[in-house]
Amino acid sequence: MHLLLFLVFGLIVGALARMVVPGKEPGGWVISMALGVAGALIAGVAGHALGFYQEGEPAGFFMSFVGAVILVGLYHAVIRRRGGRA
Questions:
Q1: Segment (H or E) for 40
Q2: 11 Cβ contact list (under 8 Å, min separation 6)
Q3: Distance CA 39, CA 85 (A)
Q4: Is the pLDDT higher at 86 or at 7?
Q5: Which residue segment(s) compose the domain that 37 sits in?
Q6: Neighbour-count burial for 43-73, b at 16+ CB within 10 Å, e otherwise
Q7: pLDDT tens, residue by residue, 10-20
Q8: What is the number of domains present in the chain?
Q9: Is residue 17 part of a domain?
Q10: Which of 28, 39, 55, 79 could form a disulfide linkage to 86, CB 3.0–4.6 angstroms apart?
Q11: Rounded to two decimals, what is the model's pTM?
C-alpha cells in the first residue's frame, strides 16, 4: 500500500513540477510520475541527510516538489540536446 501511495504522490508532484517548468511537455503521465518519484526520493534523502526536516513534516512535500522541478528541467535539457520534440 505504501508503494501505491508513493506512486500517486510522485504523480502529483511530477504533474505540479511540469506545470511550473516552461516548455513543451514531451512524454506522458508515466514520465511525470517517474520524474516526481525520482525527485521525491532524491530530495527526501538529501533533506534527511542534511537535517532540513523529519519524516512527515510539510517541508518534505516542498523538497519533493523542488527535486521534481530540477529533474523536469534536466529532462527538458536532455530531450532538447538529443533533438527531441521539446
A1: helix 29-50
A2: 29, 32, 33, 36
A3: 23
A4: 7
A5: 2-81
A6: bbeebeeeeebeeeeeebbebbbbbbbbbbb
A7: 888 888 888 88
A8: 1
A9: yes
A10: 79
A11: 0.79
